[in-house]
Amino acid sequence: MKVVIWIALFFGTFSLMEFMAWFTHKYIMHGFLWSLHKDHHHKDHDSWFERNDAFFIFYAVVSMLLFYAGADGWWYGWSLGFGILAYGVAYFLVHDIFIHQRFKLFRNANHWYARGVRRAHKIHHKHLGKSDGECYGMLFVPFKYFKK
User: Fold this and answer.
1) What are the protein's UniProt keywords (predicted)?
2) How far is Cα 124 from Cα 121, in angstroms, rounded to an integer?
3) pTM for this structure?
4) From the CA atom positions of the chain, what is the Rg in Å?
């Protein structure tokens, strides 16, 4: 039974992270921490790194703290930490590599889901300011972006 709970917590955490990404993106990144996210919308820097990467680091630290809690005897920490880690890996692959091409991989992906996610993110980046944006999620985007 413990394994079933662990697996459920892992997938539940992964799914919750999509909501957290949407919420953080809409209300924090495009809100009071716009100063950290702004360079992601305005490429006014020569560095490969962006101030926006601080958000990725925040969730990595949360994941590591949960691993530490798991190692210290709170076994839920492992499933929660791995759920956050798995979402972070998915986010990095989809957002940083596939969409923004920080590494030149997956350039010719033409799957309907890949096209929809890329289209939704392009629409999001059409809004250069911190307000009046749309489509703040990453893996789950509105169906209208999957239409041709």
Assistant:
1) Carotenoid biosynthesis, Membrane, Oxidoreductase, Transmembrane, Transmembrane helix
2) 5
3) 0.86
4) 17
CB 107 within 8 A of CB 76: no
Q: What DSSP letter does each residue of 10-35 carry, written as one string?
A: HHHHHHHHHHHHHHIIIIIIIIITHH
Return d(Cα 10, Cα 15) in angstroms, integer: 9
First to last CA, the chain: 45
pLDDT digits (tens, 9 = 90+) for 70-122: 999 999 999 999 999 999 999 999 888 888 787 787 778 788 888 888 888 88
* Rounded CA separation 25/96 (Å): 15
- Of the candidates 75, 72, 121, 70, which has an alpha carbon nearest to the alpha carbon of residue 94? 121
Task: List C-alpha distances in Å: 39 to 5, 36, 42, 88, 115.
Answer: 40, 7, 5, 20, 24
What amino acid is encoded at 125 in this protein? H
